[in-house]
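Anyone up for a design puzzle?
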């Protein structure tokens, strides 16, 4: 699996300022999913799945929650939305559908109030 924006993700792991491209966002989601799956696999092997999810999976998920929120806010910034729209996650079903839609749409191809276009290399 290739993570083209891993350096960018690690540099901005705790920052919700600026913008994150679709590739950066989805690369982080894939990496987080992989880490949680590895933790789950290890936990199942070590503890025979008793009380799943256990402390290992919950610990990895807790460590990834802050960076996931930061990259999600930056992704919203990239499409011109303020970060507080992330609270839609608390609206059952519809909120998740709207957020996933927004995370998938194309970036604003110009500077917006959250910074320059991250894809602009000129």
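Challenge accepted. My sequence:
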């Amino acid at each position: 699996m290739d993570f083209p924006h891993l350096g960018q993700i690690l540099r901005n792991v705790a920052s919700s300022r600026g913008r994150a491209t679709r590739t950066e966002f989805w690369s982080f989601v894939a990496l987080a999913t992989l880490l949680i799956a590895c933790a789950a696999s290890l936990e199942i092997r070590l503890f025979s799945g008793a009380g799943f999810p256990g402390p290992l999976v919950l610990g990895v998920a807790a460590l990834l929650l802050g960076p996931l929120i930061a990259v999600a806010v930056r992704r919203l910034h990239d499409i011109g939305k303020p970060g507080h729209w992330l609270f839609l996650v608390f609206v059952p079903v519809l909120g998740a559908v709207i957020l996933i839609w927004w995370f998938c749409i194309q970036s604003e191809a110009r500077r917006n109030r959250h910074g320059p276009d991250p894809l602009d290399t000129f």
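A detail worth pointing out: Residues 7-104 form one domain.
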